[in-house]
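Example (one chain per record):
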Amino acid sequence: MAEKHKVPRTTELEFGGTLGALCLPILLPLTVLYLLLSCRTPDASLLPPPPLPPPAQLWLPETLLLLLGWGALQGGLYLLPIGKVAEGMVLRDGTRLKYPINGFSALLITGGLLAVALPCGLPLGYVYDHMLPLAVSAGVISLSLSLLLYLKSLCAPASAIAPGGNTGNPLYDFFMGHELNPRIGSFDLKYFCELRPGLIGWVLINLAMLMKEAELRGSPSLAMILVNAFQLLYVVDALWNEEAVLTTMDIVQDGFGFMLVFGDLAWVPFTYSLQAHFLVTHPQELSALGAIAIAALNALGYYIFRRANSEKNLFRRDPSDPRVSGLETITTATGKRLLVSGWWGFVRHPNYLGDLMMALAWSLPCGLSHLLPYFYVLYFAALLVHREARDEHQCLRKYGLSWERYCERVPYRIIPYLY
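Predicted structure:
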């Protein structure tokens, strides 16, 4: 029975294979530090490289303890018996894991605690003043957790191994993640990290930047308010629709290794907050008309993103629902159906189109004179194109001729008439 559910060896390597697995755990943390240091320079220029501060400014044990405390708080909120419990997708051995759907409640409770603590003197400006050691500490936690996860995965049953991290090469499997759903009891480590400490931490960092700007200039700028509002909406949406993450590639396909651990705990909170960080030391004037135009772009992007994702998730959960039952589909050899009308007949990844529009709206309040705040747009475009290519490859392998027919019906991948 164990052999029946055993995951075959991974033969197709991603992210540059072994070389990528060796270099990326070094390059990614260095990129985070480079961006944060560039934000602090007078002209916020990416070139020449910013000077490296002394070690005492990069490492503080108290920031490590602070982040561990933050993780413990979010872990405690994860364990609260509030909200419903949802089942994930069917696993290789035919079972389904259960997941608590209480991320939005965790966000509200965190917000309530902040509302009480700030008037009592919580020094949220500490976050801005110690961004570098906080980022370094996040990197240390990510590396440590990744090592522990890999060691744990060596004792995992054969059916629990991730299909993309089973090469037998320790370095590559450590990077991609060897175990698909590592758990401590019922506590799912990957699911927890995917949406909790990093995503809610991103909101907290943005708020710290807003308060720092108010401290320096008397009040937050319109640009800062827009960035905070847009990105708060994005996080609220993710946590309100938390159950949808159970069908994503991160949960269903990818193991939990350094790639996802560092992305969740360090990359997201410290690079996605780059626009707010930039605005603290490089204030931008924004007209009311400009703000309205940018808000309209974000609203349109959000509308496309949410409607497309809702349509997909509803169809996956219940194809007979009247809201999606009339959509045209192509039936595959596996019995699954591919949507070829509605949002998913418009382009193959309409949610990515909305995502990119929002990403641009988050950067525009920072003006057009600096490249640094547009790093997120450029990075995110590359990420989505890469993710789309991974998805296309897997769908072609899984659905064969049916996928080719789908691609003929829906020729554009993300942007209509362009790509």
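Caption: The mean pLDDT is 91.
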